[in-house]
Amino acid sequence: MKKLVYSFEMGDKSWRDLLGGKGANLAEMTKIGLPVPQGFTVSTEACKEYYEKNQWLSENVKSQIAVHMMKLEESMGKKFGGDENPLLVSVRSGAAVSMPGMMDTVLNLGLNDTSVEALARESQNEKFAWDSYRRFIQMFSDVVMDIPKYKFDIVLERLMEEKGCDSVEGLEAEDFKKAVEEFKGIYVKETGNDFLTDPFDQLLATVEAVFKSWNNPRAIVYRDINGIDGSIGTAVNIQSMVFGNLGQTSGTGVAFTRNPATGEKKIFGEYLLDAQGEDVVAGIRTPKEIEGMADEMPEVYKEFMDVCALLEKHYNDMQDIEFTIEKGKLYLLQTRNGKRTAQAAIKVAVDMVEEGLISKDEAILRVDPSSINQLLHKNFDPKELKKERPLTEGLPASPGAASGRVAFTANDIKQGKGEILVRLETSPEDIEGMNLAEGILTIHGGMTSHAAVVARGMGKCCISGCSSIELDEAAKRMVIGDVVIQEGDCISLDGGTGKVYKGEIPKREGMIDSTFEKFMEWTGEYKSLGIRTNADTVKDCETAIRFGAEGIGLCRTEHMFFDENKIWPVREMIVSKTSYEREQALAKLLPLQKEDFVGIFKTMGARPVTVRLLDPPLHEFLPHEDDDIEKLSKDMNIEFRDLKNRIEGLKEFNPMLGHRGCRLAVTYPEIYEMQAKAIMLAAIENKRNGVDVSPEIMIPLVGEVNELTYVKKRVQGAIEEVFRTEDFKLEYKLGTMIEVPRACVTSDEIAKEAEFFSFGTNDLTQITFGYSRDDSPKFIGEYKSKEILAHDPFESIDERGVGRLMKMSVDLAKAEKGNIKLGICGEHGGDPKSIEFCHGLGLDYVSCSPYRVPIARVAAAQAEIKSKRG
Amino acid sequence: MKKLVYSFEMGDKSWRDLLGGKGANLAEMTKIGLPVPQGFTVSTEACKEYYEKNQWLSENVKSQIAVHMMKLEESMGKKFGGDENPLLVSVRSGAAVSMPGMMDTVLNLGLNDTSVEALARESQNEKFAWDSYRRFIQMFSDVVMDIPKYKFDIVLERLMEEKGCDSVEGLEAEDFKKAVEEFKGIYVKETGNDFLTDPFDQLLATVEAVFKSWNNPRAIVYRDINGIDGSIGTAVNIQSMVFGNLGQTSGTGVAFTRNPATGEKKIFGEYLLDAQGEDVVAGIRTPKEIEGMADEMPEVYKEFMDVCALLEKHYNDMQDIEFTIEKGKLYLLQTRNGKRTAQAAIKVAVDMVEEGLISKDEAILRVDPSSINQLLHKNFDPKELKKERPLTEGLPASPGAASGRVAFTANDIKQGKGEILVRLETSPEDIEGMNLAEGILTIHGGMTSHAAVVARGMGKCCISGCSSIELDEAAKRMVIGDVVIQEGDCISLDGGTGKVYKGEIPKREGMIDSTFEKFMEWTGEYKSLGIRTNADTVKDCETAIRFGAEGIGLCRTEHMFFDENKIWPVREMIVSKTSYEREQALAKLLPLQKEDFVGIFKTMGARPVTVRLLDPPLHEFLPHEDDDIEKLSKDMNIEFRDLKNRIEGLKEFNPMLGHRGCRLAVTYPEIYEMQAKAIMLAAIENKRNGVDVSPEIMIPLVGEVNELTYVKKRVQGAIEEVFRTEDFKLEYKLGTMIEVPRACVTSDEIAKEAEFFSFGTNDLTQITFGYSRDDSPKFIGEYKSKEILAHDPFESIDERGVGRLMKMSVDLAKAEKGNIKLGICGEHGGDPKSIEFCHGLGLDYVSCSPYRVPIARVAAAQAEIKSKRG
User: Fold this and answer.
1) Looking at beta carbons, which residues of chain B come within 8 Å of A657?
2) Is B69 inside any structural domain?
3) pLDDT digits (tens, 9 = 90+) for A685-705
4) What is the largest CA-CA distance in chain A?
5) Where does this protein hold substrate (chains A, B) (predicted)?
6) I need a surface site. Which of A353, B71, B238, B488 has the fewest CB within 10 A?
């Protein structure tokens, strides 16, 4: 028979998979001699067995639990639910990874009409005994039988009213007896059965409830989000009760060995005298700060401080400790690595290195890269946020916090007034307004929609795909459920969670300090992946360099074209009927485009700057309003109707798969020639001014090597011409995006013609899956909830599909050209999990939006450290 | 020094690659003792060298040509361009594969002011000599120097007018002398140089012109279309002249050993007395039928008949022979396998098997599968067609010929009136009108556009992507250049070439006869690939079975939904807000859908029928006109505005990559459940009536195995329910389309859940390349002309890209499940080149539209025969 139950004397902290985190730590604390109430753990394998047997507790596990209960009775000298000296236990879930949404705790299990009397006698405290009993019934009914808690609270409130007291402590033994009777009545009514009196039945029902809660919806969602395997199961810890509610020499509390909000090296905790654990959490009584214990129970306080120091040292990390004091004696109920803010994580990690407790590489592994976002952006004050209820929730497209008045068109955004721009979806025409807005909220679009990408680039708070909002653009209002928001009404966006609130919420600044700087510096000592940035403006470049970017991996040229200055010649170029007309328009653009690059090269200096030539379909640049078409038709001397027809003719059924990227350059090579000239003229100007430059020209959307060969020839020709006319040469690289599945499959051929590859994983993901980024939010939610996709492939690289294609591409390319430079410039370049994958693929660099550079640095360092550790 | 020039005495027909087709056959005929004028061949390797040396004739090749000229002079006893007994030569190009667009022939080379006199003396025919000279100047100027021919014709016409004769034969020696003088003047004016008098200079210039013509645009396009490697080069044949224009005992002609139009076993040819080769082709004089020679020159006729019989037997194929008779002596100038119509190809192949000349497998290889189209559809009478000039040209989307009055909307098509439907692009709403139309012409869309796919399915003539037409739908007219076509005007479409004509052109029927049937039967003895059809209606099924289809590889269910009967419940289903409403609508659809399948199963009997469940995005079914929306809003009891918003909300940015295929079924599993039930109910009904059935259910657009697992479970559940309620079970298969790149890459996982894969290469090509089938015609033309793509990947499978993904999929799937059934149901399933590729991949079957089934059968048999031959 398989062993499924383990006493705390067996095992240690390394048995996490088998005993769960809580069980392993209870075993560990028992092993090192700390005062832990005795007990045992029903292992995760019992949970797996439970599910394998179609949600049925086997006789084997039942009898092992029975045996361990007997041993526990024996060593405690008590009898489980007995009529004298009764043994009571707590039952708590404990998976290998801590997880919200699961059933938590049942205390005082073992009480019934008999044992409560014994407990009263034993403790000489009838009130305590009956209080414990009513607590048990309430807790068991709530967490095991799913009876709403408020039904019991109503009874207590009535009893308090009758008694004329305003807290439960004011009630007497008699009152609790009454409560117990009434509680049993509620139980019968709700379940159709009498309350379980047999302690062993109580125990098995609770163990089963824990197992069931492993698969409750919240737990499933949490596992999906965090990529936790659903088959590992949870353990259950059964521990003899100790009581913090046996009068003023008893108490209970929780403490962190350091401050979990700031990381300050000082015990941070709260406790309550004469209370059980739930009272601290429930918020009915206000707990005291842990320092108060120094006066109230100096010896226990000292002992607890020593335990804290010991546990932190033992676990080499900040601990989160639960304890109970029963009649002056300290018991430890749990210890675990404490959750902390990003600020605290970095502070604790850096301090512990300086205290000699951990190594630098260990410190780097201690910080969750994604959490760093909190430090870079304004955030809502957590205390204030707690008071608010969100109106609705979208995708957390770009972090930060924003409050402001709603505007429904980009034109309605006024400089500096801090509006929130709300749109069905943004388009390149909205850029100006987006730049001025405080925050952006879109109804459509996913994590890589236009709004999301642009907002992240700007470091601006954005929520996308908030499909529960009904937007009536004409009437300038939006409706969320029964709340109507008019233009000018105030809303708040939490870009970190995707939640939308009504009204304004106070904010606090991001927290970049010297500790942060030091930590970031350390990441540089470990990481091997280069970290570049996706930046289109001088401002982006400056931000990214401040955060440690080592170059530009993607400089999109199309955003530059939306300037009022440039859009008209761009439009002229597009609707030109002849090459001559087109060249006239391009000649107007050349000096404007050159100026864009002059600033960028100057800012980046010797760092490599990868410029992607024009990518989007041309109709994105064309006017759609009749007024603008009229203006263009006059400028170009074209009949209005003719021009309108031509604009219609450029529309596409599937623009994502249409005439864009290098396909434009095959049809109109003059465009890329102009851009190549502008890049080189800007580079030469800087070089003449003593600024070192490293331009890299990148051709987008190549799917067939002949496209690259053709376009490259034209681009090289244009550059040679600049070198001749300027009488100046400089080094540059010419490469391609890999963003079409066919490019991956034919990378051997493409590598012959390219000096570098940059994986455009946004498009590669779209095309490999056949998911339009603008349309897929309609079904990706359902895909996640039905467990068809474990995660959104636009957030983290889909390793099994897109990743296999990337691997194939890397292998084919390296076999052809060993020294080819490989990078990634999709949004995945800022996602820690994807960065680890790219590190494994052997890429040379990742590129991400400026505000993700620090995240990428940490993730890259972690990937390197993990792979070295093997 | 590399040998680059070969005399006809060396080599034979197997030296094709080195000597070109013409040269190899001249060598062969020389070898078997036939009367071939002596000469030599400048090999294809000389051409390659010419291009390697950057278009420069090396001293080596020049001196080898000189040596061979000297030998030729010696053996002929004549002097090249000499002042007595002058040697004249013809120069003709000859690549390994015959190819239009290349420089063809220069005759009488070696003439100059001296040798013409000698020729006059020698032949005692001054007129002949000067006529030959003026011909030479004219031909040399035209084909070598690119001087327009009409400039010379004007001179001849003036001379004839002066002389008062109406043909060139009326001119005398003196007139030709004048012509020569004037021709030289034109030459000087056009080239800036004197006419070349040195015969050797003339020769080298002509050889170089042949080499240059290898890379002229027409030749390049031809090679691209036919997949001929551009690096193989052409050879040049230099042959001593014989003269058919030395009076009434001389002549020239061409003959086929069998009738090239019908295949009839009877020599078919034409000749002219006192003429040079060009006269037969030029059409100035009307040639006589070859039988006339029996009277005019009985001995030569008999000799020629013997030669024809010998050559056909020697080459084992119908020969196309050029000959000249000089003063009663027969000379052979060329023999080659004769081009023939599909009808002739099949007749000749079948006859030759029955004559014991070739084997059946050889006969099958002799027929170009694509040409079979000609036999299955009405065609324009070639003689009539010759007289017409096309207005414009689009893509030959579906073969056949159609004439009729133009209608610009599907609603304007009246039953049986034979209109031509002209649209920007068709949509599923147009199906009814398309079915009634005589032919279909679209401005947008490629070879796999909606119009193309549907028309091929219907066996109806269609031209797509005819982008030179400006369509003004509002005004109901279209403009092609300066021709305006109004509604009701008559046009003609040639679906085989994509050409559009004005007015009506007489047609002739397709030609399916017993020879065709016999040939098709033979293919069945050889092919290993199964041939299925893509069929959605009973009519399609009947056509396909008649052509030899062995099952249905793709039965699309969406076309069924566009019936007036079905579209309304479909719409109700789509706009349903609740599952309950949706199930109500589906309940209405179930019996209607079942009826569709009852007929199909009955027609197909025991043959497998693969039904693809609903695939297109739902908004394709929704009304877009306010009237229809109004009607639906009343039926559904929904506010008009609310419904209109909901319809708007279903629109997608990139519908190709949107909410369609199995993604619909993940969101609304009820739809597939209804379809699965309908299929099984129909199958059971047939089975109960004694009809054997083999249903196969196919899930579209799977990209992730979990999609298939989820949908499969629901579909199987629905089927089990039918089996229970009907108390009847039957065998069925459940599989998936492979049409998303990610499905190829994860085929190992998907194979676990699928009994068969069917490659949907239309979508797979679209998505792998990232080319929308509706938008790519805008640039694919340019891609072909710029040699970026050798062929349209929607016509033939892109083996290097899409093919690699298919290979990966097949390998992964077979490794997981050795007996998995693999097929293809994209349009490529009817393309011979793609069929050969699928055969190589090891697929079990191909599926194509009914009218392509015979083509597929031949291609499949050829693939098998070729692979067996190795």
Assistant:
1) 654, 656-657, 766-767, 770-772, 775-776
2) no
3) 999 999 999 999 999 999 999
4) 104
5) 556, 612, 739, 760-763
6) B488
